[in-house]
Each structure stands twice: as C-alpha cells, then as structure tokens.
Amino acid sequence: MVGKERKNKFLYIFFLVVFVGFCCKEVKGAKAPALFIFGDSLIDNGNNNYIPAIARANYPPYGIDFGHPTGRFCNGLIVVDYAAKYLGLEFPPPYLSLSSKTILILRGVNYASAAAGILEETGKNYASRVTLNGQIALFEKTLKLQLPLLIPNQRKLSTYIKNSLFIVNIGSNDYINNYLMPHLYTSSRIYSSESYAQLLMDTFDIQLKALYKLGARKILVTGLGPLGCIPSQLALNKSKNGRCIERVNNLVLTFNKHLVQLLTRLNSTLKDAFFVYEDVYSLFTDIVRNPSKYGFITSDQACCGNGEYGGAITCLPLQKPCCNRDKYVFWDAFHPTQAVNYIIATRCYGQNATDCHPISGSKLASL
User: Fold this and answer.
1) For the segment 139-171, what is each residue's pLDDT rounded down to a tens digit?
2) Out of 70, 269, 271, 289, which residue is the most buried by the measure of CB atoms under 10 Å away?
3) Residue 332: exposure state from Cβ atoms within 10 A (0-12, 13-18, ≥19)
4) Active-site residue numbers?
C-alpha cells in the first residue's frame, strides 16, 4: 500500500515536471504572477459543478456568450475574468476541477463557490457549497501541498504569494440566503442591522487575517452591490414599478460602512499588507437608475428568468433568454450580465479606474 502511494506521488510529480517545460512560462507584461480568488456565485467560475449543490450554472443557456456553459452564473464573462485580462493573466482554474491538479495553478486558483457566505451556516438552503472558511482551507492546501512541488524554494514561493493578487468578493449570501430568509434562519430575529453587520465583520476580520498569515499581502475586497435592486428581491418583495427595495439596500450600506472601517484598520495594523476596497454599490446603483447612460434598455428585468421581473424563479435549463443580452443589466434573478461585469471591472482595473480605493486593482497588482 505504501509502495503504491509512493508510486502515485512520483507519477504526479513527474506529470507536473514534464509539463513545466511546456506550460510554465511567465506571462510577459503580467502585473502579478497569479490571481487567487475567493467568494460566491458572482465570481465562481465552475467550482459548484463538482459538488452536490443546488446552486449550479453548468447548463444552457448559461455561458451562451462564452461559447458553452462553464459554471459561471452569467451569459459570458464575470468580473474576475476581466480582471485577469487587465492584469495580463490567463483565467485561473476552479479549484475543484482537474485543471487545478496541474501546472495551471501557477496562474492562480479560483476557490469561489455559489451560495457561499462569510458565516458557515449561510447558503445551507442550497445544500453543498464551499464556505469562505472552507475556501481558505483549500488555499492552504494549495500552498502547502501543491505549490511546493512547482516552486520548491521556500523563499521564492513566499515571494510568489506575496506578489500575487488576492480578490475576495463575499457577503451577499449572508443577506439574501440568511438574514433575509426568516423562515429558514434566525439571524434577523437575533441581530439588528448594525449588530449583524458587526458579526459579519468580526468573522471576516479573522478570515482576512488567516489569508495574511498564509502569506497574502495584496488583497482586494469587493463591497456589496444594491441587493435590493436584483430581480429576485423585486419579485419577493412585490416591488411597485421595479423600484429597488430600500430596506434591503440599507442593510447593504451598513455592511459596506463596516467593511471600509475594517479594511482601514487592517491596513494600519498588518505589516506590509495592502487592502483595497472596491465600491460596487455606487456604480451599480447608478446603472439601475440610469440604464440608458450605460447603453442598457432595462434594469429591472432578468434576461433569463421567470415570474415577475424574471426574479421569482431563476434561469432554467434550456430556457430561451432574451436576444439582446448586452442591453440588459441582469442576466438572471441574481446576477448581472457580461456587459455589466465589464463595466464593473473597468472601473477598478482599467486605466482610468475610479471605484477602487485608495488605488486601482491594477496598481495594487503592480506593487
């Protein structure tokens, strides 16, 4: 048995070494050596395909503008795909895919999982998902078991991690699949808006420090968008004339306020760490209020969904979506279209970025 394990390990190392010569060339002009991604369905690029999850997007018409379904909850590319393009990097593979067992992990790894939250119990209504704690544990596994086979020199490995960009986009499900579901979760009966946001921050603080202890130094954290404007919330709360649900948006604003304070504190207390905050709320709110300004024709109707606002039931397998997808703000009941994702990414990673503070995502990657 021991001999078989040694043989398997030898074959795995041999496989990696053989492919190093073919695949392991540093991307010229890249602003960071790799991209490590943590979060939920907004940036999941296929992890939930490999677990018994209800939250999946591995069927048509998802991926219709990508060429095929990938597990991305979008008609095409998601924000982190555009981020990788701006940074001159290839798309990192999903951790749970076979690709993450190859040399491809040198470009980074995507650990994001649909329905995941900051809190362990968040998203349990969708069955299996990899929570943020679970995602960090998987990164530790990558760092301690896989990457040393490719970068044996510990000093070089530490430098590689230090220079890589970490993107964290999480928290939406802690509201729409926890706090705002009183029939399944007790959180809204126990915590006020302020105390719940503080609970999330206390937990998130520990999680971000865990990434720091594992070597992460350049960390971009995305705030929450206006959840009260997504089709599912419009349908659930019986919105009149497509108006956003302000009660829900006020919860988001409280979360974002506490998040900015947390990142400011971490920047001042963790040596050599640089946290950047991405403000999605302001941009997305303006897109919803003034869709024509950005080239959209509707901001309260899902391109692929069912029921009022397309938000009662999200996009179903083989359902026919709208034809003019780039004219819609929302792809399904919860997620923006590729066109919106491009705008969001450009406002953080593009040449004239304005929505990431105190510096752009591209500048952070280049430090």
Assistant:
1) 999 999 999 999 999 999 999 999 999 999 999
2) 70
3) buried
4) 41, 332, 335
